[in-house]
User: Fold this.
Amino acid sequence: MSRPRGLAEAIDVLRADPAAVPLGGGTDLLVALRAGERSVRHVVALRRVEELAGVTTGPDAVDLGAGLTWAGMEAQVGATLPALAAAARAVGSPQARNAGTLGGNLGSAAITGSTLPVLLALDAGVEVAGPAGTRTVPAGDLVRGPGDVALHAGEIVTRVRIPRARGPQQFLKVGQRGSVITAVAQVALVLDLGARRVRCGVGAATPVAFRPRAAERAAEAAIDWDAVTADPDLPRRFGALVAADRPPLDDLRASAAYRRHAVAVLAERALARALAA
Ligand SMILES: Cc1cc2nc3c(=O)[nH]c(=O)nc-3n(C[C@H](O)[C@H](O)[C@H](O)COP(=O)(O)OP(=O)(O)OC[C@H]3O[C@@H](n4cnc5c(N)ncnc54)[C@H](O)[C@@H]3O)c2cc1C
Assistant:
């Protein structure tokens, strides 16, 4: 195991050994190693890499280190990014909340990952660094499929930059057993009162989280942005449009019909709560 102290050293180690794998809090990777689902010869622990730490809140954006844990998100961004803090609060076990990181959540690219739908709704950019330097990828382009992250060899997620939006935010999920990892539908919603935009991220219902663009546009057109009100039936119509955006997964955790219903209910509730806030 390598324990680099800085980003340049971490990237050097990853570049030198193509078999090396980054380790955040280990709440996914160590579980997979113990279960024999993965085998890794060389682990590069990122915990001491100081460039991955901290939260910076500026006038235009909030900048989160990839090493931020769920507990850190809950404690540090509740006021600026309430949807992300709510997603962190919904992680079932205190151990996972204390160890699991933002970078590891994106690195796992699990279908049930909670941060991606929120980052989509927040219009986040993900900074990655590797042997060729640093680049920023829209959150929606980072994860291509389950376990498939658009990172080049030796690259890691370093920071996530979120433009500040004034207005209510929601994160809701349903799972087989409350807040454990097996979510079958998650919805994040941001009402951006300044830009007069509705942004929604849907997770756990399809192989990759997505934004239901047609539903967003329909809601934007139907909201009275001066009064921040809408026809009482708008949330229901919005939920139906979100659920109709694409076919949901049909697997052992939930049927497609259940997921479609769950997404419609969550999206309806999220918009209704946001308009009432
Ligand atoms: C009881 C329990 C409950 C959970 N509940 C939830 C939940 O509600 N929602 C949810 O989304 N997840 C949940 N998880 C899963 C897990 O906690 C998260 O996915 C967590 O964010 C993973 O972060 P980590 O730092 O532990 O990643 P690790 O296990 O260290 O790494 C995961 C993967 O990401 C890679 N990686 C790590 N850091 C980086 C980086 N900076 N850049 C690029 N790749 C990187 C690793 O190589 C590995 O492939 C739960 C897990 C447990 C055990």
Summary: The chain has a mean pLDDT of 96. The chain has two domains: 52-163, 169-276. The first strand starts at residue 20 and ends at 23. Residues 52-163 form a domain with the Uridine Diphospho-n-acetylenolpyruvylglucosamine Reductase; domain 3 fold (CATH 3.30.465.10).
